[in-house]
Write a structure and sequence with these properties.
Layout lengths: L1 E8 L5 H10 L3 E7 L2 E7 L2 H10 L9 E9 L21 H10 L14 E3 L6 E2 L5 H13 L4 E5 L2 E7 L8 E4 L13 H7 L7 E4 L2 H6 L6 E4 L5 H12 L4 E9 L5 E5 L2 E6 L6 H9 L3 H12 L4 E5 L7 E4 L3 E2 L9 H8 L3 H13 L13 H11 L6 H14 L20 H13 L4 H25 L5 E5 L6 H10 L3 E3 L7
Parallel strand pairs: 15-18, 18-19
Antiparallel strand pairs: 1-3, 1-4, 2-3, 5-6, 5-7, 7-8, 8-12, 9-12, 10-11, 13-14, 15-16, 16-17
């Protein structure tokens, strides 16, 4: 009897392939991979196949696993031999060793034979590599220090982290629940998000704080980052603390070696924000060897898609790029150096001059220098300054994006995004339309959401024009501006065949 298993695994690494072959190694099996499609055939009698299927329940879920099908199949005569040494070692906690510890307090390595890659310190002066021999002694020491309201330190390949008992102050980088049962005491966490948090990848995620907790602690923000334990030591420490009625640890990264892996959930999509540990190891090495790491990241994204893809690279830290044919940047955006240049550009035609004159009678004009990248993030900052959301351009941008992200509006006002005759972007038309709506009495929230929504419409128009000319047939979002849900949601909604990459949005 033969069972055929089919999986869709979207990222380019060997983690899931290793897991499948590791669990199949004691059976007669065949494994093939075609891009994102993994196929596993298992041969055996009914009891053997039932035992194998039961063993799959021990596999940790992956955020990159999209589809799973199983069917009966025909006999095969091409067999695989499991060669463990050809795979990359993976150090994280898995269902295998976490469930064994929770149930029996036994110390096991994960499926890759990795026990715990952390080092422990009580004072930063000396770190101790955690192993089976010192595990329980260091666990007791860590627990005793924490309940005395002292900090402890764990070091891994991402950096050095300070752990302390959570005291309802959010002066840390993220929270780590001592047990998954603690999460809903502070956060609103759906079953879908819980599965993502508990996945093989153990991502950082930003979740909404529940209304009662925010009200009781007079919080002026609505969400915060959370991550589950990704190593056996912090998992065991959390269990011990939870048994003593502690719910969360606050974690602050005090030394950074690599970005932590962070994702965002949007409807049915998983958005990788940062952290490169799950891309192809050779690609990662190449990206970080380059002087321009962001362009190397974009090049890798292109390699993952058809050459007829339009890359929408909208960043907070770099100049924006609308890249077609792998090398042609269609966006020519040059923002003003100061408010004087801005108003001089607006006054260049009669309608703009009259608008500015009328606007000055009702609203204060800007009088300042700008330090701007040539990107839409900075343009939205100018919109935020005209709306007087903040005196600082960056803070005005963030305030505008926050308004847009939290908006419940079905649609905002249509803000003007257009190109000049020479195909350069006309930022003055964007700001002129904002001024016009302000003079018409439209509120700031409507304009803020409209500015973000209209940017998505502009991207759609550029994309549709290229599709009509048969210069591209898909769009791929990239860049840190897309961490904002209002922009990402509208872009995915309005651009046909718009794709997310499993490569992080930024570096």
């Amino acid at each position: 009897m033969v069972l055929n298993f089919s999986f869709e695994y979207t990222v380019d690494n060997d983690i899931f392939e290793y897991i499948l072959q590791n669990y199949a190694k004691n059976y007669t099996y065949n494994f093939t991979k075609n891009q994102n499609t993994y196929k596993l055939q298992i041969k055996g009698n009914e009891q053997e196949l039932k035992t194998f299927c039961d063993s799959l329940q021990n596999i940790s879920n992956s955020i990159f696993l999209r589809k799973f099908d199983v069917s009966t199949g025909e006999d095969f005569d091409i067999f695989c031999n499991f060669k463990e040494e050809k795979f990359t070692k993976f150090a994280y906690l898995t269902h295998k060793n976490s469930s064994t510890y929770a149930e029996k307090k036994e110390l096991l390595s994960n499926e890759w034979g990795v026990f715990c890659e952390c080092e422990f310190s009580s004072d930063l002066n000396e770190f101790y590599k955690i192993n089976e021999e010192n595990f329980n002694d260091l666990l007791k020491k860590a627990f005793d220090l924490l309940i005395q309201e002292k900090g402890i330190y764990l070091k891994d390949d991402k950096g050095i982290y300070k752990f302390a008992l959570f005291n309802n102050k959010f002066d840390c980088d993220f929270l780590l629940p001592c047990d998954i049962k603690a999460i809903n005491s502070i956060f609103i966490c759906s079953n879908e998000n819980l599965k993502l948090l508990a996945s093989l990848e153990k991502p950082l995620m930003k979740l909404r704080l529940n209304v009662m907790f925010r009200k009781n602690h007079n919080l002026d923000f609505s969400d915060f980052k959370l991550r589950l334990a990704k190593d056996l030591f912090s998992f065991a420490l959390g269990l011990k603390l939870f048994q003593n009625e502690y719910k969360f640890l606050s974690v602050k990264k005090i030394q950074d070696y690599q970005n932590d892996f962070e994702i965002m959930s949007l409807d049915d999509n998983i958005v990788v924000l940062e952290g490169f540990e799950f891309i192809n190891p050779k690609a990662k090495e190449l990206i970080f060897s380059k002087t321009d790491k962001n362009m190397a990241r974009i090049s890798y994204i292109l390699s993952r898609f058809d050459e007829r893809a339009l890359i929408l690279e909208l960043s907070k830290n770099y100049d924006d790029i609308l890249l077609v044919n792998k090398e042609l940047n269609l966006l020519k955006l040059s923002l003003p150096k100061d408010s004087k240049e801005l108003y001089e550009e607006i006054r260049k035609d009669e309608i703009g001059a009259r608008l500015l004159e009328n606007f000055a009678k009702e609203f204060p004009l800007l009088d300042e220098n700008f330090e701007l990248k040539n990107n839409f993030y900075s343009l939205l900052g100018l919109v935020g300054r005209v709306l007087n959301l903040d005196q600082n351009v960056k803070k005005a941008t963030d305030a505008l994006l926050k308004i847009a992200d939290e908006s419940k509006m079905p649609r905002g006002v249509k803000i003007d995004y257009r190109l000049k005759e020479d195909k350069s972007f006309d930022y003055t038309r964007t700001l002129r339309s904002v001024m016009s709506f302000m003079l018409a009495g439209v509120d700031s929230a409507n304009i803020a959401y409209g500015a973000v929504e209209s940017l998505a419409y502009f991207l759609r128009d550029v994309y549709d024009d290229l599709r009509e000319k048969k210069q591209c047939d898909m769009a791929v979002v990239s860049g840190s501006l897309f961490e904002h849900k209002a922009l990402l949601k509208n872009t995915l909604k309005h651009l046909k065949n718009c794709q997310l990459s499993d490569v992080p949005l930024w570096i």
